[in-house]
Amino acid sequence: MRDITAIILAAGLSRRMGDRNKLLLPVGGVPMIRHMVDVYSAATTRSVLVVTGHDANDVAKALADSAARTIFNADYAQGQPTSVACGLRAVNDAGAVLIGLGDQPLLTAGDIRDLLAAHTSADPQRISIPALDQHRGNPIMVPDALRSKLLRDPRSAGCKKFTRAHPEHVQFHALIARGFYTDIDTPEAYEALIAGKLEETV
Predict the structure, then answer these.
(1) In this model, does residue 109 exceed pLDDT 90?
(2) CA–CA distance, 186 with 167 (Å, rounded to integer)
(3) Closest alpha carbon to 157 in 83, 72, 71, 49
(4) Less crowded by CB within 10 Å, the N or C end of the chain?
(5) What ranges in 63-174 are assigned the alpha helix state H?
């Protein structure tokens, strides 16, 4: 199951990183957001949709000549749920949607394929969430039939509020790859990533 639309959330203010936008920091010789687009592109067949906000022009430049198209969330300062809603509204075709974060550089295309396989082999009409020791991870899989339900309240679209309020629409998959549960929020985390020691800190 690779014929899906991937949405990467890349609109946040990156406050905990200080004066740097974490998504523009280099990972493997390219900006982090470009690295993430390459990972998702290797696991799916459709173009990747990147929701921008803070530093939108710089993020778009980092994605030039990539497999991504960008959509600007004018309400990005109001929080991540607005970016989820913006991305969902921008998906024109039917089908499942993969919603991920722009700051999970330990995530691999193989990890994403494992999530897609778990979703397909379970109940493809439910939202699939990776989980490890009761810790939720990202990305999540949203079936086409539930996209309209998520958009009824943009303040809770795709976030824990909806999935906790509607457990009948959710399934968890015991996926152990650290990439699902590790993001880069602080200078210390980025330094550990560059030093190859990030997995030791999570």
Answers:
(1) yes
(2) 32
(3) 83
(4) C
(5) 80-90, 109-121, 144-151, 160-165
Q: Which two tokens stand for residue 71?
A: 């959509």
Q: What's residue 129's pLDDT?
A: 96
Q: Write the CB contacts of 15 (distance below 8 Å, at least 6 apart in sequence).
A: none
β-pairing verdict for 30-31 and 135-136: unpaired
Domains defined for the chain, CATH in brackets: 5-201 (3.90.550.10)
pTM: 0.93
pLDDT of residue 80 exceeding 70, the answer is yes
Give yes or no for residue 23 having a pLDDT over 90.
yes
- How far is it, in rounded angstroms, from Cα 11 to Cα 200? 28
Residue 15 CB coordination number (10 Å): 8
CB 32 within 8 A of CB 105: yes
CA nearest neighbour of 100 among 117, 115, 89: 115
Secondary structure element (H or E) that encloses residue 56, with its range:
helix 56-62
Pairwise CA distance, residues 188 & 152, whole Å: 38
pLDDT-wise least confident of 50-64, 160-174, 179-193: 160-174
| Cβ neighbours around 167 below 10 Å, total | 10
What is the distance, to the nearest Å, from the Cα of residue 82 to the centroid of all Cα atoms in its chain?
Answer: 14
Distance separating alpha carbons of residues 85 and 81, to the nearest angstrom = 6
